[in-house]
Structure formats: structure tokens, C-alpha cells
Amino acid sequence: MAACSVGSDDSDSAPGAGAGQGDATGSTDGGATGEGVAEDDATTPVGPAIKLNVAKGAPAVPVSTLVKVAAETGALTSVAISSPEGELPGAISDDGVSWTASERLEPGTTYSLKAVAEADGASSQVRRTFTASPLTLDEQTYPSVAPLQGETVGVGMPVVVTFDLPVTDRAEFEKHMTVTASPAQAGSWYWLSDTTAHWRPKTYWKPGSKVAVDVDVNGVDAGNGIYGQEDRVVDFNVGKAHIYQVSAKTHDMKVFENGKLLRTLPITTGKEGFTTRSGVKVIMEKFESKRMNSETVGIPQGSSESYDIDNVQWAMRVTNSGEFIHAAPWSVGSQGYANVSHGCTGMSTDNAAWLYSISRRGDVVEYTGTDRPMTFDNGYGDWNKSFKDYQGGSAL
After folding, report:
1. What are 166-219's pLDDT values in tens digits?
2. Domain residues for 336?
3. How far apart are CA 58 and CA 131, in angstroms?
4. Which of 198, 242, 326, 342 is catalytic?
5. 4 catalytic per annotation
6. Is 251 a catalytic residue?
7. Weakest mean pLDDT among 45-54, 63-72, 205-214, 357-366
8. Of all residues in the chain, what percent carry a pLDDT higher than 90?
9. Which of 242, 251, 342, 344 is an active site residue?
10. What is the rounded distance in angstroms from the CA atom of residue 310 to the CA atom of residue 312?
11. What's the rounded Cα separation, in Å, for the pair 356 and 265?
């Protein structure tokens, strides 16, 4: 491929044509022939050379290739690249000199190319067939995206892209991952690992925002022989600004909607040895009913602190480590007065049902009053870094 970039000396059009030339349609692999000129018009000049970045006779072309075609002089009049799956999209530049594909190649797919150029009344064409490198699933990484298509989320919801195989060239992938909001809001990607990248705005989303996520990584080189498997486009909406302020010292939760205090709820948080984390948390998922077993958070069966409750109502997860907001009818006598839970935020069944009914994934819960900090990677902890530090997690 080293000598096959656009603008190289590997021209696909013949440098000249003799008198009495009889081919008025062009050769099958280059060859300027005065396309459309009568057989006896031996004085018509040869059309412009056409160059490609796909090598003649290449055994396979990398899927990361964006096919390019260029006319050395004059202008391209048409470029078409087809496969059994359809046309490869692309566009001729405004000056007519070049054509660039807007999508990369599909693994193992054979393409047929035809390009025509004209200069000074003469035309030439090039035809070429080539095949993209085949790839196994173990050589392709698939992106999953949250929020979901059409979902309405809270103002604290990050965009989460998870890859099923590692992306070692994070910078190359990040160039092809965009988040666009209306109204416009500054933001940044942050790579938590080679398989997970988050994006958040500088401050909480503006209520009512419309957001478009474009993970344009199909065929992009992820490094170590792995390529993007598929593009993902997801549009979602941001709902009302729900900010819940929890104080472990005053044992209450203030519920704000778009800046207005709706209610103050008595609650209980984690007792000594099970202290609830202070910091900014985000509702990750919701369950009308959830089984809660102490073994899942490291408390063994038979311990004096063990529990196994199969019907905890109105449960909303706020950390990966097992902190929830939920109905806790067994602790109503302590709610508003003492911290008696194993780290969750408990409230009466009626209060929990009401809060659940107005809450969405992405709503913000701000905890204060303990000496145990929320960690950045324990759920959607994106808001526990300054925006400057968050930007430091970008690969660009």
C-alpha cells in the first residue's frame, strides 16, 4: 500500500494513446482512451490520469481504509463503488479534483469501482475490483451505548459507551465519537478503561435538552488487530432537573424539581461500619421490587449483620457497590432521627413510592454528612471530579 496513496506516481490511466485508437469506452483497469471519441478522431488528446489509494492486485484492503480517488488534472465527473450490500457512499470535492468515501469497508466484502474524469474535452475512466480484509468476531469490538434510543433521562446522566473488546488506540476511536446537544453544552470524554468511555457536560444537563450521540467507529482501527464492528447513533432527551439532597447528619432528603423544593423526606442512612458515601451519585436503575441479600455486598450468611429480603419495594440503585434508595418500613421509627441501615437510604413505603414515581435514570442525588467519600468509578460517579480533571481523562 505504500505507493498507492492518492497523488502517488501509480497512475491508473495510460499516459498516452496512439492514432487509430478504437476503444471508445475505456479499459477495465485504467487506460485513458478518449472515452466517447469516434474511432477515426486520432487527434483528440488523452484524458486525465486517475489515481486511487487501493493498490492494483492487493490481496485484501484493510477495513479501516477510506477509499480515495483523484484526478491529476481536470475533474472527476463520476465515481461509483458498489458491493452486494449496496453502494459505498462518498462525495466529490467542491473543486472536482477528488472523491472520498464517507464510510469504511465491510470485512470480506468485494467492491467494484468505476471512476470517470474529464479535462480539456477528453475523458478517461478506471475500473477496479478489490476485497476488504475478512475479520472474525474476535477481531471486532462492538459499542453499547447508554442512554437508550429515545430515552428521557435526568440531568446527571453521563453518556456511557462500553466496548466488548479492548480499544488500545483510544485517541483514534475518540476522534470518531461525538456528542451534540441542543442547546449546545461543552463537555468531554473520560476513559475509565480500554472498554469504557463516559461523556458528561461541564455542568448538569440543561433540562429539556435534546442530545445526539454518534459513535462512528465501524472499521476504525482500535489497535492490536481489532477494528470497530458497527456504528451506533443514539438520540435521547433530558427531562426535568431532579436534584435530591441527602444529609446523613440531619437524616433527611430534600427533593428539588427545576430548583423548586417539592418535599423534605425523613430518611436513614448507613450506621457505623456501613457508612453511606458522601458525594454526587446518579440513579442508575430502578426496580419496583428487588431482592437484597447481604452476601452480594460482602456480609456472609450467618453473620449478625446478614439479611436476605426478597421484596424490597421502590428500589433505585445509586452505586455499583450496592447502595440503593428504597422503602424500608422496618426502620420508620429511626427515619429522621438515626442512621441504622447497611449503607442504603431508607424511607417509608409511601415516600419511596412517591419518589420512585417522579424519578428517572440520571437523576442526581447529592450526599453530605459522612467522612466516607464517593469514588469516581462506583457507578455514575462522573460528577465527583472537577471538569478540568475530567477533561484529563480524554485521549485527545
Report:
1. 999 999 999 999 999 999 999 999 999 999 999 999 999 999 999 999 999 999
2. 242-384
3. 8
4. 326
5. no
6. no
7. 45-54
8. 81
9. 344
10. 6
11. 13
